[in-house]
Structures are given as C-alpha cells and as structure tokens.
Design goal:
The protein is 32% helix and 34% strand. The chain is α/β, with parallel strands linked by helices. The strands form two sheets. It has a six-stranded mixed sheet with strand order 3-2-4-5-6-7.
Length: 139
C-alpha cells in the first residue's frame, strides 16, 4: 500500500482543479518522491505548448533530482492532471512513462485521483491511502 500525505494530496488536487478552470484546461505535473515513509508530490513547470498535455521542465527535474539524491530519497514516478478526463493513463501517458514507475493522475472533473504502476507498456491500478488515515487505523 502506498501512502500519501492527505493535506498535500488535497492541495495538489485543488491546484489541479484551479489550473483546469483558469488556464483553459492546462495540466499540472511533477514528480513522485519516495521519502522513506510516504510518497510526496513535487510540482514542476508544465512546458507543453499543447492544451490538455504535459511535459516536465528538464531544468526543474534536474534540480529536484539533485535535491532528492542529497536527501537520500528516490524519484519513483510522475503525476499530472486530467482537466476533463478520468484518472486513468492514456496511451501517450503509458508510452512516455519510465518502465516500472508510478503514475498518479488527478481527475479535475470528479475531484479525485488514481495511482498506477506502469510496467511493460501496461498500466495497472495500485491501492493508496493517506498517511493520516493509516496512523488512525494503527491506533
């Protein structure tokens, strides 16, 4: 089970929905970082010129990768939003993903997200929970 910080999840989802409304359907995007105790979203600039598309900023990715390495953490995947689509990877999402990586998609219409493992050209749904909720169950 993959754990996310609930407050960070809500903030990124809110930003995704705001971007979809205000910027004519533009997507947000970034990297998923394994901090050692939970997964974290780190937003990058979307440098895609195509409406409804995303491309991670290479300078942002290099800067984040250096910080992640220094902290002893690991980049394990990417995230992006679907302004008017379901939280499921499209064929282009799968083709451009690193093999055996995670992909989180925020559905701005339904206001929820989905986690996927991309491996050998296929996307498989993965369960996730919120760190706050997981702590409650352990008590």
């Amino acid at each position: 089970m993959h754990l996310f910080d609930k407050s960070q999840y809500k903030r990124v989802l809110r930003d995704a929905c705001r971007s979809a409304r205000e910027a004519d359907g533009s997507e947000i995007c970034g990297l998923i970082i394994d901090t050692g105790c939970h997964l974290s979203f780190v937003t990058t600039r979307n440098v895609s010129s195509r409406a409804g598309g995303f491309a991670l900023s290479r300078p942002d990715v290099r800067r984040i990768a250096a910080a992640v390495k220094t902290l002893g953490q690991e980049i394990v995947g990417t995230f992006h939003s679907h302004p008017v689509g379901i939280a499921k990877p499209g064929q282009a999402d799968i083709e451009h993903a690193v093999d055996d990586s995670l992909m989180f998609i925020f559905d701005c219409t339904a206001k929820r997200g989905g986690l996927w493992r991309i491996k050998r050209g296929r996307a498989r749904p993965r369960p996730f929970a919120f760190l706050h909720d997981a702590r409650k169950r352990a008590v």
